[in-house]
């Protein structure tokens, strides 16, 4: 992951079209996520469900497509990437459970928190509480993305090493 920052000549290049496409996908995801939070927000576990859907959407984009600082892209057509999908789904399931439980705990703590967590200078905007929930989900998202990208890069690197290694000859001279 960090090796590509030292070796600028070999770093993958991202075209303007791909950059615009990824930006459009992020904006669609952000708007769709906002709509989900509005629609599901008042239902039981609605925030957690909307968070899980939006979280999954952004994890997919951050893992498989290049972003600033993480320029590697992993094609779902690649056989080595396909072999890692069950492991990535297991990891994603664990992180989704972590987020679901974490948000449920955050929401159950709400009545027991001091009032300054929900007001800013007498105005009920809830900055500390909201930023705490959003911040913790964001940290978990990037931890999962880094773990998943590391697994994929190792898998591709190992397959590259296997294909470039010369098999030893068992013939005697």
Walk me through the structure.
The protein is mostly helical. It has one domain. It has five helices and no strands. The protein has helices spanning 3-6, 16-40, 46-64, 79-109, 127-164. Helix 2 runs antiparallel to helix 3 (46-64) and helix 3 (46-64) runs parallel beside helix 5. It is elongated. 8% of the residues are buried. The model has no long low-confidence stretch (mean pLDDT 79).
Task: Explain briefly what this protein structure is.
By secondary structure, the protein is mainly alpha-helical. Helices cover 68% and strands 0% of the residues.
Features:
173 residues, mainly alpha, 5 helices, 68% helix, 0% strand
What gap, in angstroms, lies between the N and C termini?
43 Å
Beta percentage is under 5%
Give me the count of strands. Answer: 0
Q: Please tell me the total number of domains.
A: 1
Secondary-structure blueprint of this entry?
Elements: H1 3-6, H2 16-40, H3 46-64, H4 79-109, H5 127-164
Helix pairs in contact: 2-3, 3-4, 3-5, 4-5
């Amino acid at each position: 992951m960090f090796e590509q920052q030292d070796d600028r000549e070999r770093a993958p290049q991202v075209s303007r079209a791909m950059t615009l496409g990824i930006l459009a996908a992020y904006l669609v995801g952000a708007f769709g996520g906002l709509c989900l939070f509005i629609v599901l927000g008042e239902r039981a576990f609605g925030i957690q469900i909307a968070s899980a859907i939006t979280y999954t959407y952004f994890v997919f984009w951050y893992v498989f497509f290049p972003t600033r600082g993480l320029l590697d892209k992993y094609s779902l057509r690649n056989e080595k990437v396909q072999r890692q999908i069950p492991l990535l789904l297991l990891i994603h399931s664990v992180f989704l459970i972590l987020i679901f439980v974490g948000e449920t705990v955050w929401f159950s703590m709400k009545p027991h928190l001091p009032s300054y967590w929900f007001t800013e200078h007498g105005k009920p905007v809830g900055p500390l509480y909201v930023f705490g929930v959003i911040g913790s989900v964001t940290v978990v998202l990037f931890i999962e993305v880094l773990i998943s990208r590391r697994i994929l890069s190792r898998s591709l690197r190992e397959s590259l090493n296997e294909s470039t290694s010369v098999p030893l000859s068992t013939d005697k001279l």
